[in-house]
Specification:
By secondary structure, the chain is mainly α. The protein has 13 helices and no strands. Helix 2 crosses helix 8, helix 2 packs parallel to helix 10 and helix 4 runs antiparallel to helix 13.
Length: 354
């Protein structure tokens, strides 16, 4: 593959932000329409598969040509600095939300020692699906952290093995990985799992195919130069989340994850945003990870409110809009006041030879 000039993929950043917003809206709708076939964004959970595929592409793009020079320790250090500050902050927010949720059922509160253990496991990224009140999430205080667990696994395997793997071997690995996607959907009816103790291994299937596909796309040089632009691609990505949840999930989810998402990345990497959307794409990209890792504390509070008060119509719409606004403000504040400064400080403190 010819050398690809290093640049910033602004449109892919923007699409990451759209996917993060889809996850948040999907989580609200899980309370409003527990039957996913009645949710207008019933496939919002597939945003995680898009994240995994995009991550594979971006990791290969950022490190393939320099990981040998960089070294394994520095690669792991850089990924830790990028990912872990928000893992910790998300766990802290989740703990505060759990302790001070005014609408929670006191009977479901766990003892202080158990909560301390759950919190410790959360910041150390050790799955501990023990909280019945949070549906036995792998990380009960901050449910979305389950995908970060698998992101860490993928990053470790990249540093140890995948960074040196040739395209033809990646292609062979994609075959059983795709079979794993089919198997999970056939067995469970959808790719929704991976977040709970009972569906733990579904997460491995989901990250295996999509992360490998992202690596493969980059190493094949599959970047389709086009003028489609960000708004059109954002619309196409959103359509995947709006596909009805139905008995045809084996077909629809397989096509979306195996073909459609990789294709969107091929196209997104080859299009440039119009001048008026470039800053918007950058902002969406910067907000995507903080929003993803800091939104769930409010989802549980909303769920308790919805189940006790049963708001509907305009009232419900206003509540969700206000809650989403709060989540975006929190994500922006966390990005500016915590994540960016702490990553700069860690980068300086953990620099080799410091």
């Amino acid at each position: 593959m010819g050398h690809i000039q290093k640049k910033h993929f602004e449109v892919l950043d923007g699409l990451r932000g759209i996917a993060a917003l889809a996850v948040v809206v999907f989580h609200f709708m899980e309370w409003i329409a527990p039957d996913y076939s009645h949710s207008f964004i019933g496939h919002g959970f597939l945003a995680v598969d898009f994240f995994f595929c995009l991550s594979g592409f971006v990791i290969a793009y950022a490190y393939d040509d320099r990981i040998g020079e960089l070294g394994l320790a520095e690669f792991f250090r850089s990924r830790f600095i990028r990912l872990h500050p928000l893992v910790i902050f998300g766990a802290i927010l989740g703990l505060l939300g759990y302790l001070f949720n005014p609408l929670a059922n006191p009977a479901q509160h766990l003892g202080g020692l158990k909560i301390a253990g759950i919190f410790l496991c959360s910041i150390l990224m050790i799955p501990f699906p023990t909280m019945s009140s949070t549906a036995y999430n792998l990380f009960g205080l901050n449910a979305p952290a389950w995908s970060l667990f698998w992101e860490y696994i993928a990053n470790i395997l990249y540093g140890l093995v995948l960074c040196r793997m040739k395209r033809r071997y990646l292609a062979w690995l994609l075959v059983p990985a795709a079979a794993g996607i089919f198997f999970v959907i056939y067995r469970s009816g959808s790719l929704l799992g991976g977040w709970s103790g009972g569906t733990f291994w579904d997460g491995l299937a989901r990250v295996s195919y999509s992360f490998l596909a992202g690596l493969f796309i980059y190493r094949c040089g599959w970047i389709f130069i086009n003028r489609m632009g960000f708004p059109a691609l954002a619309g196409l990505l959103t359509l995947a989340f709006l596909v009805p949840f139905s008995k045809w999930n084996l077909l629809s989810e397989s096509l979306i994850v195996l073909i459609y998402f990789p294709l969107l990345i091929v196209i997104g990497a080859g299009t440039r945003p119009e001048a008026w959307t470039r800053r918007f794409c950058n902002l969406l990209g910067q907000l995507s990870y903080p929003l993803y890792m800091t939104h769930y504390w409010l989802i549980w509070i909303f769920g308790d409110y919805y189940n006790s008060r049963h708001p509907a119509g305009r009232e419900l719409l206003l509540i969700v809009a206000a809650a989403l606004g709060v989540q975006l403000v929190v994500a922006y504040a966390v990005m500016k006041l915590y994540d960016s400064p702490i990553r700069r400080a860690l980068s300086k403190a953990m620099r080799p030879g410091h």
